[in-house]
Amino acid sequence: MVGKKQKKAKSDGSSAKETEIKNEVKSPETKNSKEKVEAIFLKDIVKADFEGAAKENYDSGRFGEYKDNEILYSLVEAMFLLEKGKMNVMSSGKDLDVKGFMKNAIKSEPNFWVKYCVFKDMRTRGYVIKTALKFGADFRVYERGVKPGEDHAKWILYPVSEGSTLTWHEFSSKNRVAHSTRKKLLIGAVDNEGDVTYWQVNWIRP
User: Fold this and answer.
1) Domain ranges of the chain
2) Which of 30-34, 45-49, 122-126 has the lowest mean pLDDT?
3) One of 10, 43, 94, 152 is an active-site residue; which one?
């Protein structure tokens, strides 16, 4: 197996540390009058009707999963759309700003900040990235220009905090998941400033 280090990407202006993201990230200015997705925060998912902006974002970028004329968003997807000014999210009858959403999301997913840094970086690079729970992984990633349903995902992606450790058993398990699903394995390491470094693991024949 060979670890291949990918180019490190700087974050695009969001806060550096988790505490700073909670306290300092500002919602982007929205000077246009484009319709936003009107969504509801439901513990570990965000839900909206499949119409208007929700349908547009699904058709253009495969944001969310369609089910019974509704769109179900993972928390990282909803956070990304909220931060981009493309979504309004309500919880208990109140609108959530970025700080409030982050607080609620961390309650549901303690590792949310690390996962979001990787998700945002991948989306900013032009990749479609979706959850991969049924594969036993965090994310599946499609080649640029490919949408789910058009072809299979190319990578299985695991976000980790830089400096954290993996046992050989954990590392081997991740490799087996990638190999069994015929995908390449990516590890996305997030440092304290929110920057992401990717390691691709390949199998080679001796």
Assistant:
1) 2-28+36-202
2) 30-34
3) 152
Measured in Å, how far apart are the chain's first and last C-alpha atoms? 10
Query: Per the residue annotation, which of 142, 158, 174, 198 is the catalytic one?
Result: 142
The one catalytic residue among 36, 174, 183, 184? 183
Range in 10-24, 47-61, 156-170 the model is least confident about: 10-24
Mean pLDDT of 130-155: 92
Supply 157's token pair: 């992606």
Give the pair of three-digit tokens for residue 171: 């590392």
State the Cα–Cα distance between residues 80 and 139, nearest whole angstrom. 15
Is 131 in contact with 74 (CB distance < 8 Å)?
yes
179 is catalytic: no
Question: For residue 205, what pLDDT is reported?
Answer: 66
Which residue from 24, 18, 22, 7 is spatially nearest to 193, judged by alpha carbons? 18
Q: What single letter denotes the amino acid at residue 143?
A: E
Domain 2-28+36-202 grouped into CATH 3.40.1350.150? yes
Least confident piece of the model among 17-21, 77-81, 165-169: 17-21
Bridge partners of 37, per DSSP, are 87
How far is residue 84's CA from residue 104's CA, in Å, rounded to a whole number? Answer: 18
Judge residue 144's burial from the number of C-beta atoms within 10 Å of its C-beta, 0-12 exposed, 13-18 middle, 19 or more buried: exposed
Identify the residue whose tokens are 């670890």. 3
- 53 close to 36: Cβ distance less than 8 angstroms: yes
